[in-house]
Design brief:
single chain; 174 residues; alpha/beta; Rossmann fold; 2 domains; five-stranded parallel β-sheet; 6 helices; 51% helix; 13% strand
Length: 174
């Protein structure tokens, strides 16, 4: 079994539909990861232990997702020297703004990189870029991914130029 380099932590299994995009990107880039459900409130000791032992298990970065009060990324960051990326989840009456504010407003000395609400894909790419800072093969795969995304955009642009707005939207189902 390959040792995971990234950890994905969700506060609830209801976060998994969003966080699957993070896992997909890591899979596409060939980066091994582990995924676990933890909670800053319901299992605080387990969550702290996960964070404290992450570096020793070989992780290089942790992506933590949470909605509502969104304390999970900050609690993890408080217990690990590893970089932590927070993914605010669109949940509840405030549509994820509460989670965004909770994650982005960490106190001095406890940084958490924060992506957009439901920005799991970007979190996966950022995690890969952090790993790629020290691993040239990962960096090369990130370059290839970004080139692929650019080609896909150019293909869409060519389709738009050929079909016009109405034709493009009808072909795309919009």
């Amino acid at each position: 079994m390959v040792k995971p380099l990234a950890g994905i932590v969700v506060g609830s299994d209801s976060d998994l539909p969003v966080m699957k995009d993070c896992a997909k990107i890591l899979d596409e880039l060939g980066i091994s990861y582990e995924i676990t459900i933890a909670s800053a409130h319901r299992v605080p000791d387990k969550t702290a232990e996960y964070a404290r032992t992450a570096s020793g298990r070989g992780l290089a970065v942790i992506v933590a997702a949470a909605g509502g009060a969104a304390h999970l990324p900050g609690v993890i960051a408080a217990h690990t020297p590893l970089p932590v990326i927070g993914v605010p989840i669109n949940y509840g009456a405030l549509n994820g703004l509460d989670a965004l504010y909770a994650i982005v407003q960490m106190p001095s000395g406890v940084p958490v990189a924060t992506v957009a609400i439901n920005g799991a894909k970007n979190a996966g790419i950022l995690a890969a870029q952090i790993i790629g800072a020290a691993d040239h093969s990962v960096r090369d795969r990130i370059v290839a991914l970004k080139e692929k995304m650019a080609r896909q955009l150019e293909e869409k642009n060519a389709g738009l130029a050929e079909l016009g707005v109405e034709g493009y939207l009808s072909k795309a189902g919009g």
